[in-house]
Amino acid sequence: MIEFDDVSFRDLEIPHLKIPEGVCAVFGPNGSGKSTFLKLLSGMELPEKGSILIDGSVPRKTESGYLSEFPDKNILFERVADEIASPLKFRHTDCSKTNEIVNRVVEKLGITHLYNKNIKKLSGGEKVLVELATAIVADPDLLILDEPDSHLDPFTAGEIFGIITELEITHVVFCTQNMERAGEIAGYAVYMEDGRVAASGTPASVFEELKGTCFYPENFPAGTG
Ligand SMILES: Nc1ncnc2c1ncn2[C@@H]1O[C@H](COP(=O)(O)OP(=O)(O)OP(=O)(O)O)[C@@H](O)[C@H]1O
Questions:
Q1: Which entry of 48, 75, 140, 169 is 20 to 30 Å from 87 by CA?
Q2: Ligand 1 mean position to 208 CA, how many Å?
């Protein structure tokens, strides 16, 4: 369980929120606080007040992987294999174990053909897959994805979300502007407005509260529109 208790940070105020295990979608208007929420969850930012616990541990003591909205910004190495291996190298995992894990992850994500490529020369979707591999290579308990679909065509976005739902990670929290997608793959949804959680619960219950707004997905459940 992810628990926010009496949390304040900048304009964000979350008195109480509990997110169960599984996949959680965070959505809401621009500037509503989604990225800030994800940064607090990752431990990149610390609350000014209150506490955030992930299965009883603070974010900075939780093994987490983070995929930013702009993967280019976080790339450290040129060669795909070196980038994906970097979280393991920073943890001083030995070389043969690192190679074994990297090989397993690239196979899982279907990107073995990119192994020796220069990341700068990859397409946007390929970069997202490489950064997703980097985010999961250290076997996180929490995977955070900030609009992983924002620069992708619908087919590639669908593929990436398909992969995300098949990963065996205790907590996956992503934000998106695609409500249909959120409803399809998430077991829990958080709708934000003005730095507040305006609705949370199953996607169906949250969408019910959003009927009549532009955040109500006409095609939910998928294929009904
Ligand atoms: N580094 C920062 N310092 C101060 N204020 C910030 C900072 N980053 C974001 N904000 C402010 O916090 C608020 C929430 O921003 P945030 O990026 O979390 O929203 P968002 O819902 O992710 O937006 P978008 O959908 O446009 O990406 C905004 O008013 C923004 O201006």
A1: 48
A2: 26
Q: Note the pTM of the prediction, 2 decimals.
A: 0.93
Residue with tokens 């679909």: 149
ipTM higher than the 0.85 cut:
yes
Query: What is the CA(26)–ligand 1 centre distance, in A?
Result: 14
19-39 tens-digit pLDDT: 999 999 999 999 999 999 999
Say yes or no: 127 and 72 in one domain: yes
Pocket of ligand 1 (CB under 6 A): 10-11, 28, 30-36
- CA–centroid distance, 89 to ligand 1, in Å, is 32
**Is the residue at 184 inside a domain?**
yes
- 116 and 70, same structural domain? yes
- 74-131, pLDDT tens digit by residue? 788 999 999 999 999 989 999 999 999 999 999 988 899 999 999 999 988 889 899 9
- Domain holding 3, by residue range, is 1-61+143-152+171-216
What rounded mean pLDDT belongs to the chain? 92
Note whether 133 and 78 are same-domain residues.
yes
State whether 98 and 117 are in the same domain. yes
Are 46 and 147 in a shared domain? yes
44 and 147 belong to one structural domain: yes
